Amino acid sequence: MSQTIVIAHLYPREMNIYGDMGNIISLVKRLEWRGLRAEVRQVEIGEAFDWEAVDLVFGGGGQDSGQLAVGADLVRHGDKLREMAKAGVPMLVICGLYQLFGREFVTGGGDVIPGIGVFNANTRAGSVRMIGNVVAKNDELGALVGFENHSGATKLDKGQLPLAKVSKGCGNNPKSGYEGAVSGEAIGTYLHGPVLPKNPQLADKLLLAALKRRHGVQELQPLDSSFELAAAKVAATRPR
Amino acid sequence: MNVTLTLLASKTAAHLSQLLGRGGGGALPGVVAEMLDPHLSGKLAAGLSGGVIVVTGTNGKTTTTKLIGEILSAHGVKVVTNSSGSNLKRGVVSALIAAADMRGKMTATVGLFEVDEASLRLVAPEIKPTHIIVTNLFRDQLDRYGELDTTAKLIGEGIAATSAELYLNADDPLVASLAKYAGKPADVHYFGIEGVPVNPVGEHQTAIDSDRCPECHSRLEFSRVFYGHVGHYRCPKGDFSRPAGEVVITNVETADRMGSRFVAAIRGKRSTYDFPLPGTYNLYNALAAISLGQGVGIGVELIQQTLAVTQAAFGRVERVEIDGRTLVLLLIKNPAGFTQVLQTFVIGREAVRAMFVINDLAADGRDVSWLWDVPIEALAGSNPTVLTAGIRGSDMAMRLHYAGVKSTPAASLAEGIDALVAATPVGETAYILPTYTAMLEVRKLLQSRSKTMQEMPR
Fold first, then answer.
1. What is this structure's pTM?
2. Interface probe with A: pick from B225, B369, B373, most Cβ of A within 10 Å
3. FRET label pair with A184: which of A68, B70, B98, B433, CA 20 to 30 Å apart?
């Protein structure tokens, strides 16, 4: 019996824009290639969910209508997800769900959608759409490449760590120069692309954290990453 | 500014561009004219006594426009159209300029334009469409418009600026919901499919783009899905449901990679159509053309005859003979179209030979993440010969790798074509799936090698 980890996929029907499903494919495949197994369980609006078995949490971005419906449902799981983040369960949330993992999202009309506060950050709908290729540097992971597409401007509280320093693109907001947020093993980002296939070191970081907690695994078997590196190399050279 | 002077300047620009070897200038005359007189298109379109037809939506604009143009021409109507696919406002203006004499008198009686989804609201107030067709709404180059709901609103604004008859795809909930922008309910005509054989792509379905009730945002219930979110649906709370079609395909008798034979009913009266463009997505294009054709009073027989002999638009199921092999060009622009093309031509076929050419220029969409919304996994297991090329060929190669499909990167597009031809036995077929700008490059390379290939329209 190969070692298995359980991935909770947050609201895949509503939050699946810009190829974010590719992140799940990346996680599953990178386990399979190492003789390990993933079980993906979907978190759906209005349905009960058992968090106890979950080793890794993933959520993507969505359209506005989807995000409204998801925002109202996510608060049900807020206490649990905050507790899991504190306990070191690896998480990756992108764009719309990154915003909802902050404290609150203020829409263009001034409505406040409460977030679950895994990150000490607020997001405000803006008039500037931040669209284009992004390169951002993280000290541990190196250069991360992706594509951002958002008008929400996220502001991190003092003391909240960003994910990376932007060298191309906007990131959290047009002014900050930083991209994403990190709290322990929980990562929020605006990077689509999708982010994990082209940044396999980030995928492996999440997987190792999950395997360590569940199975005591100390290191991952290395994989040939030539496809990933070739794609990332080209992505980094594309115009903004 | 005086119409004649504007026309003189813009037509001169087109001639100069041609002399300089930059082609017919495509949208250039429109750009020049727009600077001199932003209302020129309205002045010229006012001279189209037979009306102005506009086709918009994500997929199928070019093909639907082409089919309608052929039906109108067969009926003896002189049509002005933007057949080069330049579908922003300047492209429409350029087409109008080309069809106007120096005094602004139109040489055509009917305008027929494909118009980009976001441009409709800029174009419609000027050229005042009398008929608007909306094909479907899928995620497409969202880096341009943001989101699908936004795109629907933009189209709605365009519709609201006219008193046009609307021809809407009943099977696409977001398209059907555009009826609310019509001047009066009697102006709305729906077309749809009752039944069609569906070739499953396996468990990796494409992401559903729009499965929410346009009224209350409840999740719609689908009794049938033809592809993506196109099918038969109803809101569980009763706020919205698929409207009955005036023109519907009741039965598809045969469907293969060479085309379909189907039965369509116009208000209950059935006729059989032979249609050489394969795939469910092309059935919708035919339906849109039949709906519009009968709507403007053209007889069924003439529509049948025209559809039976039509050919695909450039780069869309375009067949090219090279050294005894057939290469089929299948333009891919977004997950829905890519999936349809895979379903129709590639999946389930023995000895698949295909090259994916992925660019990320503005006309392709800068963001290539959509490749992950396509169920390429369905190719795994058939041991296909797959090549990748284009600016983002490495993204496609990685996508294939994660789908369990082996592929070989081509050093260049030209070498990729050579390798594809070499891998294809004489008398057999191979497929090239390019994004938009990649399609233009592929055509250019093939043009020098094939006698059967036509020039792109200008």
1. 0.90
2. B369
3. A68
